[in-house]
């Protein structure tokens, strides 16, 4: 089973960025832990701050991989292009957020991409990514 985790803008700063919301751990610490815990999965990771690059990556793997875990960062709330892309590919996408966006600013409460996703996991810190893997492996 091949699963790709995609992180969008500013998520390269995890561990440094607003630690009271996003925690102290960088993504680089989480990925080996996940790979160790789920040896049966081929886990891949991609991060970009650029909307078009996220779309390119979704298109690249979106007919071959078994699952995509997407934290689109702030593009979650704005990007019709990401929604169209998620709908265009055949690989199922799970939307993930580290924070619970429903408890934050009003403008974070709407997800533009949710309608194209299999489901959403949010509010569990970095464990949200693991829970998304669990959702894929059943
Ligand atoms: C986020 C929530 C978004 O609203 C925000 O723009 C992010 C991170 C999260 O993981 O909690 O960049 O997707």
TrEMBL record:
Q: Which pathway features in its UniProt record?
A: Metabolic intermediate biosynthesis; chorismate biosynthesis; chorismate from D-erythrose 4-phosphate and phosphoenolpyruvate: step 3/7
| Keyword flag Iron | no
MF terms (GO), sorted A to Z: 3-dehydroquinate dehydratase activity
Q: Does the keyword Magnesium apply?
A: no
What residues sit in the active site? 22, 97
Q: What does this protein do?
A: Catalyzes a trans-dehydration via an enolate intermediate.
Task: Please report the name of this protein according to its UniProt entry.
Answer: 3-dehydroquinate dehydratase
Q: Which organism is it from?
A: Prevotella bivia DNF00320
């Amino acid at each position: 089973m091949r699963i790709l985790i995609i992180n969008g803008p500013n998520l390269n700063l995890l561990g440094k960025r607003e630690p009271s919301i996003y925690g102290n751990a960088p993504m680089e610490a989480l990925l080996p832990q996940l790979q160790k815990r789920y040896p049966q999965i081929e886990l891949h990771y991609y991060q970009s701050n650029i909307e078009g690059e996220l779309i390119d990556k979704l298109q690249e793997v979106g007919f071959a991989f078994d699952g995509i875990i997407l934290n689109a960062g702030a593009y979650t709330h704005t990007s019709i292009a990401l929604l169209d892309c998620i709908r265009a590919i055949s690989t199922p996408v799970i939307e993930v957020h580290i924070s619970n966006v429903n408890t934050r600013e009003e403008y974070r409460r709407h997800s533009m991409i949710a309608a194209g996703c299999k489901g959403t996991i949010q509010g569990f810190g970095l464990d949200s990514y693991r829970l998304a893997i669990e959702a894929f492996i059943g």
